[in-house]
Write a structure and sequence with these properties.
The complex is a heterodimer of chains A (about 325) and B (about 250). In chain A, a hairpin with a 2-residue loop joins strand 2 and strand 3. Chain A folds into two domains: about 180 residues, 3-Layer(aba) Sandwich (Rossmann fold), CATH 3.40.50.620; about 120 residues, TPP-binding domain (Rossmann fold). Chain A is about 30% helix and about 25% strand. With about 325 residues, chain A is an alpha/beta fold. In chain B, the strands form three sheets. A nine-stranded mixed beta sheet of chain B has the order 11-10-9-12-8-1-6-7-13, sandwiched between helices. The longest helix of chain B is centred in the N-terminal third of the chain and has 17 residues. The chains are: A alpha/beta (about 325), B alpha/beta (about 250). Chains A and B meet through helix 3, strand 7, strand 9, strand 10 and strand 13 of A and helix 3, helix 4, strand 9, strand 10 and strand 11 of B. Strand 18 of chain A pairs parallel with strand 15 of chain B.
Amino acid sequence: MSVLVYTESEGGTFKKIAFEAVSYAKGIADMLGTSVTAVSINGNNPDQLGKYGASKVLQVSNDQLQNFNASAYADTISQAAKNEASQVVIISSSANSKYLAPLLAVNMEAGFVPNVTELPTSTSPFNVTSTVFSNKAFATTEITTETKLIGLAKNAFGILENETSVTTEGFAPSLSDSDFNTKVTSVEKANDKVTIADADIVVSAGRGLKGPENWGMIEELAEILGAATACSKPVSDLGWRPHSEHVGQTGKPVSSNLYIAIGISGAIQHLAGVNSSKVKVVINNDPEAPFFKAADYGIVGDAFEFVPQLIEKLKEFKSNNA
Amino acid sequence: MKILVCISHVPDTTSKINFTDGDSKFDTNGVQFVINPNDEFGLTRAMWFKEKQGATVHVINVGGPETEPTLRKALAIGADEAIRVNTPATDGFYVAKQLANVAKEGGYDLVIGGRESIDYNGGMVPGMVAKLTGANFVNMCINLEVEGTNATAAREIDGGKEIINTSLPLVVAGQKGIVQEADLRIPNMRGIMQARSKPLNVKEPIDTNTETKITGFSKPDSKGAVKLVDNVDELIKLLHQEAKVI
């Protein structure tokens, strides 16, 4: 009957979103008067999940699952849910979780609501709140099936510590050959860079930078802040920056703690992709730029003047606060 | 190869989002509807398969008669036939069941949907169709090649991409990258004229259940005004002491 949560890891290291998902699961478990069971696939030191409220970890150690496989992972999680007789299952909103979610929902005959931002407003009926219309609105949705699948929006609930005594058990899913009909043959990933999905801070720039040769200061600013770099759609369409940096409605979503927009006017499609970030800063020389209406802090001014200053002052700030 | 492209009929990206009937329904008043952008990238890739590999392309939507102009636009872009399943798109699972039924009956080799619709952002329908029909599935697909029954796809992952080998029957959820923005087609007059005489078949829905029910909408609290500063020292101070994000 416990609340089941899938805790993602990469190369054995649990992701921050895994801790957030456990924190959220603990919140629901408290509402339902039950406990939290986490499923870990090849994660190291699963006991650390107790810190966020897990009472039990089902630890899957399986070489076939070393690389992510949506079908096999979905089967593993649904079998774990069955094992625990769990009626509420929590996953995150990572690219991998979004891949496995619909397969898992069909496996469990569970109603699925993604992009959930807070604890259920009631558990009977089971009502959850999620973002819709690209963060321009919230919907309250009743999940009417016996089993419920919730996709937690990133950085909405937060990581809450809730020290709980935890036991870890091995769990061996039964997988079929058909699970491996889609095979990953290669992965291209820059390992030295913070990804937009994982970043606490994102530094993003637009056409106001005038050309790709001017991105050096954006990269330097990002490096000082430990941030990911991103760009607006026109910049990626012009080929100034790779498509993988395009954030906005048809690009990547951003839900960071801090989003710094430099030389980006703030088209409605861009704002739709970034407005779930907590704090937004804009630097733009056009005081009429729509981004000023969406931002928390702003500087009306030239990026070529203010960004180098920001870099210098942040270096000082970092060395004083190290 | 028979391709089925799933088309969501969604408010244009610049639409004002408002609700009516006690905040229980999306207000369509004055809203322009379009092909969901993620679906349009997939449709454009389907056109490539039609032109280069002789594929047949059908488009499908689950919805009322008001969605037909969107299907006609897909026909004008070049799809051969359209199907409308005549029922409101109540929830992701219900829509997936309707699509899976047509996909199975029609013997489609490849079903292309979008990463998510830009209205409800569910991102679940293509994967559910795959599971319900027993097809392979690639989400967030940014490249797709098909040779015989073998398919090679690229999937966007956090921080990069992965290359996937799989086989037909296959369902992919496309997005920008499966074709580029510059490859998108604006229907020309000839396409629009031809679309008028292409088949648009209306099919009655199969009887199936829903799993979720939206009971209400709300809009985010309006944000306070932006705090303007004129020097970076002040900005750093605010970000550190007030916003506590650095």
